[in-house]
């Protein structure tokens, strides 16, 4: 005969599943925040580089 499943067993398993889901959600949020930060940094670097290029090309034309 197999052991009986008790309410405490179900509660314990539900707590484990909840903890795992919370952990995965936090990891996903951290990953998405990192990606958003990286995209922002790349966009700023690209804008600064483009502005530098435009300023430099205008400066060479005047001389």
Folded structure, characterized:
The chain is mainly α. 89% of the residues lie in helices and 0% in strands. It contains one helix and no strands. The protein has one helix at 7-62. The longest helix is centred in the middle third of the chain and has 56 residues, at 7-62.
Uncertain spans: none
The count of helical stretches stands at 1
Query: How much is the average pLDDT?
Result: 88
Number of strands: 0
Task: Report, as a whole number of angstroms, the end-to-end distance.
Answer: 95 Å
The helix content is over 70%
* Helix/strand class: mainly alpha
The value of Rg in angstroms is: 27 Å
- The backbone outline, from C-alpha atoms, is rod-shaped
Strand content: under 5%
For the sheet with most strands, the description reads: none
**Helix and strand succession?**
H
